[in-house]
Structures are given as C-alpha cells and as structure tokens.
Design goal:
Elements (H helix, E strand, L loop, with lengths): L1 E3 L4 E5 L22 H13 L7 E6 L1 H5 L3 H55 L3 H43 L2 E6 L7
Parallel strand pairs: 2-3, 3-4
Antiparallel strand pairs: 1-2
Helix pairs in contact: 1-4, 3-4
Length: about 190
C-alpha cells in the first residue's frame, strides 16, 4: 500500500478483491465489512494526507480480477464501512457528552458540599491547624471530583471529532479499480 500526498491517492495493491474484505462477513457484497488490516491501512494513510485534500483510493488488481468488479460497487462498500464508523464516532460523542453532563452534575453537587463543609469546619473549629487542614482537604476533594467533567468538556471530545471527520473524508473518497500485475507477497 502507498500514498501520493500530492493528489491524495491511497493505492491498494491486491492479488484478489477478497483481501479487501472481512472473509467471515456473511452479508452481500455492498454491505460487507472491510478487513481490519485494510481498514487500518486506509485510515493510517488518510491521516497522513493534507486535511483539505480530497481522498482517492486506487485499488490495483490483476486484470482478470479487476474485470469482475465495478469501481462504484467497491466504492459503495468502502463508503458504507466508513459511514458506519462515522455513526459510531457520533454515538461515542453523544455518550461522552451524556456522561459529561452526569459527572458535571455529580461534581458540582459534591464540590458544593465540600465547600459548605469547609466553611462549617472554619466556623466550628476556629482558625486552628486542624480546621485549616480540614478546610483545605475539602476544597481539594471538591476540585478533584470536578476534574473528570472538566476533562471531558475540555479535551476528551477532540479526538472523537477528529476521527469522525477523517472517517467522513474516507467515506467520501473516490474509488477506482486499476489493472496491474499480480502481487507476489500477501
């Protein structure tokens, strides 16, 4: 497999079309899953391409094998596979934000309780060392509890959105079948 960064082409050199697909998948041709290795190679190469360059996937097959398939059918299989990945990433993002809202609610509740306890320790125990230790402990505990929702809303969603955008680009790729000499290695 190779890529041509100048025109956004990912080249897949195969001996036979079955190398592209999950051989255990019982679905008809257009609904088949890609082989894990093929999907990973396409994704890895696509990540290397400039973000605004349209992707083209050139599937090189021996002439006899190439004649058995239509580029539109192979393109539909690849598009379906990566459309499924887009949907999975969208679901993961929704689930992450749902979890983030729940953890934020829990975190704010516990943070509020910890801050109220810190004030109570100050009022009941005065300004002694023990009071100060308990106050600071409650404040630290409250902020530690709020860390996870902050992490979710500030950072955790970015890789999911980035991956979803990559899958969208791959799903929209133009797929061509090109006759080539047979490949000797697997």
């Amino acid at each position: 497999m190779a890529t041509d960064d100048a025109n956004g082409t990912i080249a897949l050199r195969l001996r036979e079309m079955s190398q592209l697909f999950n051989t255990l998948d019982p679905y008809p041709f257009r609904d088949r899953d890609l082989a894990r290795d093929a999907e990973e190679h396409i994704t890895d190469w696509a990540e290397e391409l400039p973000k605004h360059t349209p992707i083209r996937i050139a599937v090189h097959l021996p002439p006899a094998e190439c004649a058995r398939y239509a580029a539109a059918d192979v393109g539909a299989v690849i598009a379906n596979c990566f459309d499924d990945r887009v949907r999975a990433q969208s679901k993961a993002l929704r689930d992450l934000f749902r979890d983030g809202r729940l953890t934020l609610l829990i975190g704010i509740t516990i943070l509020s309780a910890c801050l109220l306890l810190a004030v109570q320790f100050s009022l009941r125990l005065g300004e002694g060392t023990l009071s100060r230790i308990l106050q600071e402990s409650m404040v630290i505990l409250g902020w530690v509890v709020i860390w996870k929702p902050a992490e979710i809303f500030l950072y955790d969603w970015l890789p999911i959105v980035r991956r979803r955008a990559l899958y969208r680009r791959i799903a929209a790729a133009t797929v061509t079948l090109e006759p080539s000499l047979p490949v000797d290695n697997p």
